[in-house]
Amino acid sequence: MIAARRRPKIYATLRKRYTTQTLKHLGFQFDSHGRFVKLGACRTILAEASSLDCQTWRVRPNVRTWR
């Protein structure tokens, strides 16, 4: 029997869009890959936000409780 590989859980992208200022208030930081990330303990990425127009951002949580 082949052991199943453990995949990182990725939760659905939130439908609400956030502004850059709101993301900064929520604790997101701009990283070198051109996206906002929310870091947890040991620099674990709790959530990441991406945007096509750099005005409104969609958040994709990597953990269930990302706030």
Explained architecture:
- The structure is a single chain.
- By secondary structure, this protein is mostly beta strands.
- Helix content is 9%, strand content 31%.
- Strands 1-5-4-3-2 form a 5-stranded antiparallel β-sheet.
- Strand 4 and strand 5 (56-61) form a beta hairpin.
- The protein is globular and about 45 Å long.
Which helices and strands occur, and which strands form pairs?
Elements: E1 17-19, H1 20-25, E2 29-30, E3 36-39, E4 45-50, E5 56-61
Antiparallel strand pairs: 1-5, 2-3, 3-4, 4-5
Question: Which features characterize this protein?
Answer:
67 residues
Beta-strand content: 25-35%
Q: Uncertain regions: pLDDT < 50 for 5+ in a row?
A: none
Count of helical segments?
1
First-residue to last-residue Cα separation? 39 Å
Main beta-sheet annotation? 5 strands, antiparallel
Structural category is: mainly beta
Strand adjacency order, main sheet: 1-5-4-3-2
Mean pLDDT: 82
- Helical amount: under 10%
Radius of gyration: 14 Å
Brief summary:
It contains one helix and five strands. It has 67 residues and is mainly β. It has a five-stranded antiparallel β-sheet with strand order 1-5-4-3-2.
